[in-house]
């Protein structure tokens, strides 16, 4: 967060306050985890369950549902479309 606050020229505290007002933490974290999972689906041989575990989703079902919410595709469909 310090890097981002420096980039836009505000204090870390003010940046954090703005961040809290505009971002729901769970959505931010899920977006980050799905972004990383997409990279693994593109470039690794890990199966869907391993990726779900790697990014600490409570179940492969929740991972798949969340993945579809953010990407419009299931993890398997995403992987197939990227290869």
What is the radius of gyration computed over CA atoms, rounded to a whole number of angstroms?
Answer: 16 Å
- Series of H and E elements: HHHHHH
Average pLDDT works out at 91
Structural class: mainly alpha
The termini sit apart by 34 Å
Largest sheet, strands/sense/barrel: none
> What is the helix content?
over 70%
Q: How would the global form be characterised?
A: elongated
Low-pLDDT stretches: none
Describe this structure in words.
With 83 residues, the chain is mostly helical. It has helices at residues 2-8, 12-22, 25-43, 48-54, 60-71, 75-82. The N and C termini lie far apart (34 Å).
Q: What order do the helices and strands come in, and which of them pair?
A:
Layout: H1 2-8, H2 12-22, H3 25-43, H4 48-54, H5 60-71, H6 75-82
Short description:
The protein contains six helices and no strands. It is mostly helical.
Name a few traits of the molecule.
elongated; 83 residues; 77% helix; mainly alpha; single chain; 0% strand
